[in-house]
Amino acid sequence: MDKLLVDSANLDDMQREFAALLEQTQGEEREDVVEGRIARGTVLEIANDRVLVDIGSKSEGSIALEEFRNADGTVELAVGDEVEVYVVALEDDHGQCQLSKQQADYLRKWDEIEKKKEADEQVRGRIIGRVKGGLQVDIGVKAFLPGSQVELRPTRNLDKFLDQEFDFKIIKFNKKRGNIVLSRRVILEEERERLKKDTLVNLNEGAVMNGVVKNITEYGAFVDLGGIDGLLHITDMSWGRVNHPDEVVRIGDELRVKVLKFNRQSERVSLGLKQLQPDPWVNAEERYPVGGHVMGRVVSLIDYGAFVELEEGIEGLIHISEMSWTQRVKHPNRVVNKGDIIHCAVLRLDTNAKKISLGMKQLEQNPWTLLEQRYPVGTRIVGKIRNITDFGIFIGIEDGIDGLVHISDVSWTQKIKHPSEVFQKGDEVEAVVLNIDVDNERFSLGIKQLSSDPWETLPERLPPGHIADATITKLTDFGAFAEIEEGIEGLIHISELAVEHIDNPADVVNPGDSVKVEVISIDPKERKIALSIKSYIQRSEYGTLREYREEDATTGLGDLLQGKFSRDEE
């Protein structure tokens, strides 16, 4: 290739010499033999690879036989033939004329090319090499073809034109400088205009036409319909999935396409290839009924599922939630791979939206339907804690199936802020089945339900009027809460803390104080107990108030009440 690369401004030595001689040969040729002109001669002798030529005026010259060879290497020459030769010198050092057949042919070729330029005729030539800015062409003499004049559109790959023959137009001709500039683009444009006129006659929306793929991009292919290009978009190439246009077409392919849109003003044409084939979604419900089993090839994986090609143009989505009854599939590549041939079930079909939903787990029996038989409501189970969350704990029931104990179902009475306060992952616990939701795949368990609700029997143990020991747990603006049994608290309203009116519960009790209270009312459903210290005091006899507080208490309600009753005695 390096041998073909030359500089267009530096032609070979022979061409430069001939360029200098061209001006000398202009005008009418004369009969006289003149140095620097073309003369007619007769072959006198052919011997020892030399040809002796008589040009008249008692002038003879010897020319190498090699100069008479044709392009195929043969020599068609005989004694007596008339030939044209160029007179280099009338007499050399040996007293003979110095003649050249090649130079004569070369000058005649320039004359022919000049006539074609004046007549605006085409010339035929072969591209022989790369030069700066374009290509070098042999049209009998060397000429320059700029890169912008090679095709209708500029092309970067000029090497593909090497050693090919084309027709050209001469756009610049300078005989004195030996400079010729060619154009192939002009011929292509003229041809394109002729084809365009014929094409526009038949170009209408809905027409089916023949074309040739001229260029391919990421979004489609440009098809030459004959003087006018149309865009075949990637989405109109096939009813099936096409990742890149070169999967369907190649440059140079002859296609039969349908005209989808045509704007005569802008001459923009949209073409379709798939529209020549029937739409596979027509009557798809007959081939893919809901509930039916089908086979397809996995063509794409995404975060939330896999696309499966059932036939060219019809793809269905298997959502990750439809891949397994029990496994929590985080990505579809855990179950299938691109290219796999798999069986699936048709879940939903929408021919208008051209969507089909598929499932894999539906080919197997749903293990959740068996849970109702194996674990009816009320069944006690023992399992290990698999996971702990803010809202509860998950206990392993079977492979891939966990039951949830909500934080509200851990204890009847204990207030738990987070399950980790009570449990650790891996702990073995006992629970009871509360509910099984097959449709939503939810298994509800309870721990507190293993024992009866203490609130249900509380009215029997602590009926209204019952006097009980309690411990103050918390103070509020409206009273104090007191624990009357483990995990069971009641409210002592501020109006029930003392016989006298008080504004602040802290003036009477503090958290941790042990007090005597009377049960006023109980609501098991609402889980509320109303307690009263005042009522207990009013029902107590004098002298019994020392029992109200512990003997080691030095301040608080006992002192206040003792003082109050001392004043009453006076």
Brief digest:
The protein has helices at residues 13-22, 101-118, 185-202, 284-287, 367-374, 454-461, 533-539, 557-569; strands at 38-47, 50-56, 59-64, 82-89, 98-100, 122-131, 134-138, 142-146, 165-174, 179-183, 208-217, 220-224, 229-233, 254-263, 268-272, 293-302, 305-311, 314-319, 341-350, 355-359, 380-389, 392-398, 401-406, 428-437, 442-446, 467-476, 479-485, 488-493, 514-523, 528-532.
List the helices and strands and how they pair.
Layout: H1 13-22, E1 38-47, E2 50-56, E3 59-64, E4 82-89, E5 98-100, H2 101-118, E6 122-131, E7 134-138, E8 142-146, E9 165-174, E10 179-183, H3 185-202, E11 208-217, E12 220-224, E13 229-233, E14 254-263, E15 268-272, H4 284-287, E16 293-302, E17 305-311, E18 314-319, E19 341-350, E20 355-359, H5 367-374, E21 380-389, E22 392-398, E23 401-406, E24 428-437, E25 442-446, H6 454-461, E26 467-476, E27 479-485, E28 488-493, E29 514-523, E30 528-532, H7 533-539, H8 557-569
Parallel strand pairs: 13-15, 18-20, 23-25, 28-30
Antiparallel strand pairs: 1-2, 1-4, 2-3, 4-5, 6-7, 6-9, 7-8, 9-10, 11-12, 11-14, 12-13, 14-15, 16-17, 16-19, 17-18, 19-20, 21-22, 21-24, 22-23, 24-25, 26-27, 26-29, 27-28, 29-30
